[in-house]
Automatic annotation (TrEMBL), chains A, B, C, D:
It comes from the Eukaryota. This is Adenosylhomocysteinase. Belongs to the adenosylhomocysteinase family. GO terms for biological process: one-carbon metabolic process; S-adenosylmethionine cycle.
Length: 485, 485, 485, 485
């Protein structure tokens, strides 16, 4: 795919796979709207006052149908938006087409190369001469990373004239990041510096991205305020848990059509994502074995009737392996060699380094047979036995299926909208310093409340007397900050 | 699609969508083989003796990847095979291509018209001058129906010279059947009579087809022996139950991406299929309401914590409706008009008459919006509210997903192979009269046994003393015929 | 306890533990009545016509609160009743007291010796000079056995003058049976012969009892008609399954207070009882391993995510062992020796020979520590490790808890009432020969229907058109006899 | 029961129901030890160094078998202990007897009056002339409350000579507290002041008790340091959740023998306790309806397929009502009047004021029929319909069954031991001020780790490289403080 920015008749930039899918995308967006009451409520409540008037928002977040509804909520509130995906396989091309045609500048397609991926990220951040963005919606932290690395390089360059050296790292992807920054330095040595000066803040979606932000806060290197959306209860205890409970079997079925009942499934990690995955596999009739480092999570797994063992204990008898850890080097090529023929290996946790893809790809004599896109059989020469790897080790629910369903994403994305509003509304008050913040509990409860009606629920109301008895306001928030749900 | 039979280089007839998908089909067939231990065991056990040598088998059964493994098991045992699908949406085109190229005469593609469907059925039955088939593998009974109707017409024609009148019926599909027979009478007035005389027997897969067979047996009109494969325990208590438990959510997810958790799902019918569907919806976090006519099945639903109500009670508050009854007129257009906007309506039971598609299509002012193939939104003019109908009211797991997974189909299809072998081996002994038979329990137990190793199970063995104590042979069968499992 | 028959002020015989518990029993009987809609409907429907007028019914069936409601349903319909328990531990003494005081001749208490047990059975069969019984309600077949053995002995005695020799058998319990018969022969050498001549028939409750009846039918030794109540769907698929799902954890908790979550539970046998037990353990958070001889049941277990192994594979790592097989010699003393300290061993299937109690009791140096009645810790001398055996190897749900709950027993017992009515009403028509019969399906469906209202269910009604389409009567029965539910 | 302190032969004080049950208690304590690996590990790790040498510990916590193992862990570590129950129905008399005989001064029996209850609490705090306690183990905060109220009264008395007036409150129980304090003032006007001066701290077990402590901290009235054990993950996410999942059905079964399957169960509150209760009812086959004030918890219930409604919506159709809120006035007498006949009403959350027992007891014409202790049927005069109230509205799992099982209590109580150790070890360092503290995460993880071996679990170990990648120490703690599990 030639990397040329295209333009709509109205002059908005974009780069998508196939603009003719825009109508199909629009139809699915309309279906999704019915399933996303939180976002639609935001349009009703805030739309009339156009709070984002003048705000330029860059998003780096899986360009799916659900994200399309998020983007059009932001634009409905007055924002101008540029967008890229945060994963090379996660774009739904019809969603990208519809948004590119109708609402925002999109640079995303399913099956980007890493080179293309970072080109798209650059484009989403490139607001042209007028400058921008004002706000970032981030997922995994790649947009934030690029700016931070860019600023670091520009400062070094200003001080010493040195440019980043891509060969300073082994990491193939980071080499690309450094190359982009190096090449940019020549044409505009202040690009990222201007960005960070203008930036009001970022709201971040994921455990992984949030971890990066807290590290930068701890190191004192965070360049702008950040709101940790991941740790809203209505995000991490819903999207991570119930989203994955839905989309893990979805991805497995679409990619492999394998019968889950009767199989042995290993779930590496029993955090929120792992809990959702283990529940899904158990409910579908698999026998589930969990691997964990944390004794508390391990004990939770045991209480649910799951076995807790190490990967080594079960590697040769399990049928399905799912990584959910947020860490690296979970399933190594040496594990994969010992697996049963056609064992399925996939990742729903984090980057593709949860699975040792590098080790697999470079294993002497290994043969890759692509069954269909995102479903590969890898055959080892010595055993003639193969394993099936989904989405090249990247997030399988986005690579092999369509990610989480609309309803649960409405919870996550309503948090995003509220976080963006909060940053933008307080941009001049100094309320937010260069730190990481969590949304206050009453907003978290509000997000939940917006999603109850759709499911026919009726809440009980406290009397004043009862509220006093447990020392909470009648209208909430109802729980102390440390409450775990 | 022009209805012209094509030929492979080896001269075998076929008609499929796209022969270039044969390689992809082959790859998926190879994956499926690993998941179908019962069929592969049949190849190992019976292949060397070529028991089907000389047998011509016609199959009318969803032309999927799993069926491909069945077909190639039949050919591996010596049979010559012609095949069509038993549902206009259920063919997987890559499976059809691989089989057409490599193994058997296939006439099937996804999205046939009814006209095309019956043309394919005729082709599968048409063995040319040499005559045939000897055996039929049937699913739903359409091949059997065509022969029975054909013979009836030929007898009438011989006696009275009268040909069938398509206008004698309201049923659009049956009109096509009569037309085909009428047109055939002119060129060959003994075609079906010769077929029935040669036919050794049929083995039938489904509840619906079996019901037809028992009716013909009761009426004394059954023309050849039939083995009821549906009521093997290893078929009806596995395929119907666990197959649907797998493929209902699969179909829902692929067609609509809707979040099942939190929704209200109505399952019409709580037989084996309904039990599987209700379990799937409950496990995915839906609240399930069952409708039933049979008080025993209703009481079973209650014992599982499901509510039992009538469709009228819940039609306006549920989100997902699934018919599993094997009956007609379950969800009528008047029900559909009262449903919530974007309620999902689908059928996994039987023919498309479980849902009143005719009423819907002819409702004044109704608007059909095709989101994507097999996913239509129907908007009523008065309410401007829409419902989503899957697979045009036909089996949604085959129309919107890929049907049941390989492992459970291996159980069903191993029964088919054993039934075909039994019919063929006994073709000259008179063991089977023109009646409907069930496979003996020791073969049923054998089918199960062939599937245990793949799942790592180890059986306990009775001692002689224990076997005597409960009055069974050490090697089984272990249960009386009336045992319900 | 001295074995003397006592009499109420009204002159009715009884022998119970403590008549002062009658008021407590009455209160619980009244609670149970609300939970037993099937039995209460029988009283309403049949009570006025007093169909059992003149009938003398002997029951041998766990003398619990639920059985009390059964007995008082029989008396409400006009019968005269004598009763004993069919298990030495299963009597609830307050239920026995209430019935003895108010309604029927009861001979039963919790914790009978085997000697006492058979004395009670004799008493329940002893209707005095007027003769009787006319009908038997049996559970496990002990009343039926005693009569059959008695008749056999009387015939032998008449022919040869020989009396039974208790030393002819190793089985301690059967020695008692023979002793009773031998001793009876002296005083009345025609007692059992007269009984069998008068007897209209027996209705039998359990898998075990039914198996005995079919064996006698096969051998041609069955002395009177029998109705197999066990195989009514509303019995075996409810009582066996849902009853055990309820009462297994109940018994475990009352006996041991052990936390089930996180434990490994082995369920021997995956029939209806085993399915209920496995479901209960899984739901409570245990990891469940099933042992099976039948490949079909084994495959069902696998489809539910349960592991299928042999007892030998897991004997040293499991925490809870439950036998449900209906066979003998399932858990032997050599297994028990290898178990973890304080492993729990119990039987919910059949007689106490599922567990090798004899081997345990006679193991050299073994020490029995009674924690409380029906909960014993047995310590092996070599390992100093102990296991916990419930109810001395007898049915633990009746020994350690209160058996199945009222609602599910209402299903079983309504079948009993209907079976008794059927036998009695047809006593002169010759409809029932000396064979084993199952109740017709419409009565089975009726039993279910009587239990729906209590749970708030509403049935759907077939239209005539729909009924014709599936070839059933509008009012049922809806399923063919071979249908498995 | 005359309120006279008795003495063992060794001179230790006690007051229990029946000392002859001590042997039975000892046997059950020995069983429990095998199930409480956390406590037993504390004995092994800390016993030799006798860290509690010289410490006088007063406990106010359900005097059950599990608590017995806690008490003997404290004494094994060198402490001297006095104990009372924190609930009038929760004592297991055999446990109390065994501890009184062997290990500590116990004042507790099942079925205390409120008067007796507070007398016991006084006795547990009364260490005689030598003074004490040094530490308090509290559950619900009653011991802490008595000291705080005592000190308040003594201060007022010293200042103004005024004594507390029991008539100043409507609350019957608080009247007793004030009476006790008033009467004590006469004999020793500095008793509680001396106590608070000596007290090193309290560790508190429950949500309710912790809430009181945080209120006192907020008001500045907290008199000594407190460790909030409730909010250890290994307490609130285990005991509250999995403990109740076990003990709710246990209590229901023992009290009523009611079949849970098929019933409609209303769970008021969906916190940790409510989650456990709802899971238990759902698993047992009930249809569960949740009532909630908090939209987040409500949304969680919906995601699990539970209906969320108000009590008013369902009061007349549900069968079982369980309160878990920690608030008051949840089920009022007006609700109870509208319930179905024999609806079951019980509380597993908090004090007996969750249920309007006062309204019920004083309802004109209401009739109380005691089925058995802790199981009462209350009949309303107007409807002649009754409801069944368990444990007089107090914690039904302790009143009707035996509370939570040993294994989960081992988690909770290991936190207690660690908290007590922490307070005692730091008694002179000033580490703990008059505030409420939570145990650090590494101790929480340690508690979990101590419970894994018993369940056969094996943890995965991080490599240094992996630990660095996610920025945690190799040996933990692994999660940030805000992590919700």
């Amino acid at each position: 795919m030639a990397l040329l920015v295209e333009k709509t008749t109205s002059g908005r930039e974009y780069k998508v796979k196939d603009m003719s899918q825009a109508d199909f995308g629009r139809l699915e967006i309309e279906l999704a709207e019915v399933e996303m009451p939180g976002l639609m409520s935001c349009r009703t409540e805030f739309g009339p006052s156009q709070p984002f008037k003048g705000a330029k928002i860059t998003g780096s977040l899986h360009m799916t149908i659900q994200t399309a509804v998020l983007i059009e909520t932001l634009t409905a509130l007055g924002a101008e938006v540029r967008w890229c995906s945060c994963n090379i396989f996660s774009t739904q091309d019809h969603a990208a087409a519809a948004i590119a045609r109708d609402s925002a500048a999109v640079f995303a397609w399913k099956g980007e190369t890493l080179q293309e991926y970072w080109w798209c990220t650059e484009r989403a951040l490139d607001w042209g001469p007028g400058g921008g963005p004002d706000l970032i919606v981030d997922d995994g932290g790649d947009a934030t990373l690029l700016i931070h690395e860019g600023v670091k390089a520009e400062e070094e360059y200003e001080k010493t004239g040195k440019v980043p050296d891509p060969n300073s790292t082994d990491n193939a992807e980071f080499q690309i990041v450094l190359t982009i920054i190096r090449d940019g330095l020549k044409s505009d040595p202040k690009k990222y510096t201007r960005m960070k000066e203008r930036l009001v803040g970022v709201s971040e979606e994921t455990t992984t991205g949030v971890k990066r932000l807290y590290q930068m806060q701890a190191n004192g290197t965070l360049l702008f305020p950040a709101i940790n959306v991941n740790d809203s209860v209505t995000k991490s205890k819903f999207d991570n848990l119930y989203g994955c409970r839905h989309s893990l079997p979805d991805g497995l079925m679409r990619a492999t059509d394998v019968m889950i009942a009767g199989k042995v499934a290993v779930v590496a990690g029993y955090g929120d994502v792992g809990k959702g995955c283990a529940a899904a596999m158990k409910q579908a009739g698999a026998r589930v074995i969990v691997t964990e480092i944390d004794p508390i999570c391990a004990l939770q797994a045991l209480m649910e009737g799951l076995q807790v063992l190490t990967l080594e204990d079960v590697v040769s008898e399990a049928d399905i392996f799912v990584t959910t850890t947020g860490n690296k080097d979970i399933i190594m090529v040496d594990h994969m060699r010992k697996m049963k023929n056609n064992a399925i290996v996939c990742n729903i946790g984090h980057f593709d380094n949860e699975i040792d893809m590098h080790g697999l790809e470079t294993y002497p004599g290994v043969k890759r047979i692509t069954i269909k896109p995102q479903t590969d059989r890898w055959v080892f020469p010595d055993t003639n036995s193969g394993i099936i790897v989904l989405a090249e080790g990247r997030l399988m629910n986005l690579g092999c299926a369509t990610g989480h369903p609309s309803f649960v994403m409405s919870c996550s994305f309503t948090n995003q909208v509220i976080a963006q509003l909060e940053l933008w509304n307080e941009r001049k008050t100094g309320k937010y310093e260069k730190k990481v913040y969590v949304l206050p509990k009453h907003l978290d409860e509000k997000v939940a409340a917006l999603h109850l009606g759709k499911l026919g629920a009726k809440l009980t109301k406290l009397t004043k007397d009862q509220a006093d008895y447990i020392s909470v306001p009648v209208e909430g928030p109802y729980k102390p900050p440390h409450y775990r749900y």
